[in-house]
């Protein structure tokens, strides 16, 4: 179900449909308002949404990343050149002024018309690494600060706004985002101890969760040996009710949708199967029975959650050249909220 690894490639779990973008404004001279945050599990905060990435570090102490694609800095500068995924269409992963959830720009993902090749299934990806990680702390892998390189994150929230161009054809792309623990290796493409996928299932009309583990639950031994090691993953949602996987709000091609997600790892001292993955769309909870009591890593805990990836891989491929957009990308220690809903675009 997943796309290939690219050399120049890549970007928890509560997911709330709220949108984010592909660049981070880390300029302390910027100034504006930003949404209020609240403690984990509390009611989602309300955000005016205007210029929320300006001075976000002082205004939002729980946030660890904010990108509204307004700064003009390149994705490679913000995310690290090794974290920007290749795309078949030359104009993919570019800042666009055609649609924006706030301000004047969003990040555009452009699908090439499927030609039978694996490359044509992918409109590109980007990832934000944070926290302690096994690879070197250098711009190629980390991107712009802040990095929080000495901190382990057992729980994380992230949010992004998602927009499909009017008349979007062929169903819905499979991949949307994921949170993960990179567990080994010298670069951001090492094996993962866990992954909290947020994607459509069989090109369905709604997003859904699909948590996996890369660790033996009994011995606590890391099983995966490479990125996306499908043969070693344990799929944690198998056998659970359908309502624990698929959201209820359909994707659409008429307006921005706010996606927010939450991921929490299981405890290791003592070991408890109490991990969690959930998400919201436009502030509405999407799962009747969200996956919890998840044993993501057993007793293994060399690292915490240290990456969020925004992605676009489409298993069946797009029938035509067409776009989707991402804006207002935030990663946080607590609930983020959606703020003022952007107006529908004709």
Describe the overall structure.
- This protein is mainly β.
- The protein has one domain (13-332): Jelly Rolls.
- The chain contains three helices and 16 strands.
- The two termini are 33 Å apart.
List keywords for this structure.
346 residues, mainly beta, 16 strands, globular, disordered N terminus
Write a short abstract of this structure.
With 346 residues, this protein is mainly β. It is 4% helix and 28% strand.
Walk me through the topology.
Blueprint: E1 13-19, H1 56-59, E2 63-67, H2 75-79, E3 94-96, E4 106-111, E5 126-129, H3 139-142, E6 155-164, E7 175-182, E8 192-200, E9 207-213, E10 234-235, E11 257-264, E12 275-281, E13 284-285, E14 292-294, E15 307-310, E16 322-332
Parallel strand pairs: 1-6, 1-12
Antiparallel strand pairs: 2-16, 3-4, 4-16, 5-15, 6-11, 6-16, 7-8, 7-15, 8-9, 9-10, 11-12, 12-13, 12-14
Second rung of CATH, namely the architecture? Sandwich
Q: At the first level of CATH, what is the class? A: Mainly Beta
- Which percent range fits the helix content? under 10%
Unreliable residue stretches: 3-43
Q: Give the helix tally.
A: 3
Tell me the overall shape: globular
* CATH topological fold name: Jelly Rolls
Write down the domain tally. Answer: 1
Name the helix and strand elements from N-terminus to C-terminus, one letter apiece: EHEHEEEHEEEEEEEEEEE
- Determine Rg (CA atoms, Å): 18 Å
Structural class: mainly beta
């Amino acid at each position: 179900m997943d796309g290939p690894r690219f050399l120049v490639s890549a970007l928890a779990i509560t997911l709330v449909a709220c949108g984010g973008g592909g660049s981070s404004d880390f300029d302390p001279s910027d100034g504006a308002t930003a949404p209020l945050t609240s403690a984990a599990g509390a009611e989602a905060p309300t955000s005016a949404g205007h210029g929320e990435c300006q001075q976000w570090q002082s205004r939002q102490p729980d946030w660890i990343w904010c990108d509204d694609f307004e700064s003009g800095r390149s994705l490679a500068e913000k995310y690290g050149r090794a974290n920007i995924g290749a795309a078949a269409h030359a104009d993919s992963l570019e800042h666009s002024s055609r649609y924006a959830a706030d301000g004047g720009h969003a990040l555009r993902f452009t699908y090439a018309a499927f030609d039978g090749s694996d490359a044509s299934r992918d409109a590109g990806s980007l990832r934000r690494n944070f926290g302690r990680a096994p690879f070197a702390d250098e711009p190629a892998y980390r991107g712009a600060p802040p990095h929080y390189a000495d901190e382990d994150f057992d729980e994380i929230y992230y949010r992004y706004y998602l927009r499909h161009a009017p008349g979007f054809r062929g169903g819905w792309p499979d991949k949307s985002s994921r949170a993960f623990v990179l567990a080994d290796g010298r670069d951001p493409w090492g094996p993962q101890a866990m992954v909290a996928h947020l994607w459509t299932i069989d090109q369905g009309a709604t997003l859904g969760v699909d948590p996996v583990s890369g660790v033996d639950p009994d011995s606590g031994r890391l099983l995966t040996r490479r990125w996306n090691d499908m043969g070693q993953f344990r799929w944690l949602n198998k056998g659970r009710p359908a309502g624990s996987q698929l959201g209820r709000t359909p994707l659409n091609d008429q307006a921005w949708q706010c996606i927010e997600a939450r991921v929490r790892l299981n405890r290791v001292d003592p070991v408890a199967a109490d991990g969690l993955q959930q998400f919201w769309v436009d502030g509405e909870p999407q799962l009747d029975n969200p996956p919890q009591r998840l044993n993501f890593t057993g007793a293994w805990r060399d690292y915490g959650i240290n990456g969020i990836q925004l992605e676009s891989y489409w298993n069946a491929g797009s029938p035509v050249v067409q776009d989707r957009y991402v804006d207002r990308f935030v990663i946080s220690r607590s609930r983020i909220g959606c703020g003022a809903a952007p107006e529908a675009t004709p």
